[in-house]
Design brief:
Blueprint lengths: L2 H18 L9 E6 L9 E3 L3 E2 L5 E3 L4 E4 L2 E7 L3 E3 L12 E2 L3 E3 L1 E3 L1 E4 L8 E8 L6 E9 L9 E8 L8 E9 L6 E2 L2 E4 L9 E7 L3 E6 L2 E7 L8 E8 L14 E13 L1
Parallel strand pairs: 4-10
Antiparallel strand pairs: 1-22, 2-11, 3-8, 5-6, 6-22, 7-9, 11-21, 12-18, 12-22, 13-14, 13-21, 14-15, 15-16, 15-17, 18-19, 19-20
């Protein structure tokens, strides 16, 4: 190999390393904002109340989201909740107002307010999730549902977890709708060794105009190019319940499960 070829290969390797470099070991990233959840900052976060998400079985209630001991806590339980028309509903663009009736589960949903929407960056959170059949915790970003300045409907799932699968199973996904009647998704499933999401782990994405890289505990698990997510997005933490009967929780007596978020950090180039 010629000296010029060797130098070219070295340059490529350096550039690849820079593109995969994380905030902890790269000066290309600058901290934009962070939250250690010493309290629930309502100037930054919207908490849904009497809100529903499609045909899912849980009703999102504000009393299922709080800060405690330096963690954001999101609770899900199987206490039925009735959606009443005289309640002071708080729904944001990711969800809709609940439909009158009884929901068999109650859960929590929190998302960043519009002044904290971001386009591109490195988004990282340290999270611990419960493992129970039927549960569906998620850490994701989203734009659409009535946002007038969005050119598309786009979702990046940093993770989705399913309680009917093993606790080492993590799913990452991209959903896009560019034109009416079109829908694309890019799902990948990850069965990780020596991993269980019931323990604390860091989850992150590196997102720029050309690629999205997913990380767990600082290790890349997926890279997708030409992703098409080009709008500022909101960041969301929530827990849902599987809608298929055969996948739902089996325990009929009262139970509650909690998802914990230690911190979130958002970096920009």
């Amino acid at each position: 190999m010629s000296k010029l070829s060797m130098l070219s290969c070295l340059f490529v390797l350096i550039m690849i390393g820079q593109s995969m470099a994380q905030p902890s070991d790269s000066t290309r990233w600058k901290l934009d904002w962070e939250d250690d959840f010493s309290f629930l900052d309502e100037s930054r976060w919207s908490v849904l109340n009497y809100a529903a998400h499609g045909k899912e079985l849980q009703l999102y209630m504000a009393d299922n989201v709080w800060a405690e001991d330096g963690n954001l806590v999101i609770r899900l339980n199987n206490r039925p909740v009735e959606c009443l028309p005289e309640k002071n509903w708080v729904a944001v663009n990711s969800c809709e107002l609940c439909k009158q009736g009884v929901y068999p589960y109650s859960s929590g949903w929190v998302e960043t307010k519009k002044s904290y929407y971001r386009k591109y960056g490195y988004i990282e959170a340290r999270i611990k999730c419960p493992y129970r059949r039927g549960l569906w915790p998620a850490f994701w970003t989203f734009i659409g549902m009535g946002i007038p300045d969005a050119s598309n409907y786009a979702e990046i799932d940093i993770f989705e977890l399913y309680g009917h699968k093993r606790p080492n199973h993590v799913e990452t996904n991209i959903h896009l709708v560019y034109e009416p009647g079109t829908f694309t998704k890019n799902l990948q499933e990850h069965n990780l060794k020596k991993f269980s999401y019931v323990n604390w782990h860091t989850y992150a994405i590196e997102w720029d105009s050309t690629k999205i890289v997913w990380y767990i505990d600082n290790q890349p698990i997926r890279t997708t190019y030409n992703h098409g997510v080009v709008d500022p997005v909101r960041i969301i933490f929530n827990m849902a319940v599987q809608t298929k009967r055969r996948l739902q929780p089996r325990k009929k007596s009262y139970f509650e499960e909690k998802m914990y978020v230690d911190y979130i950090r958002v970096y920009k180039l």
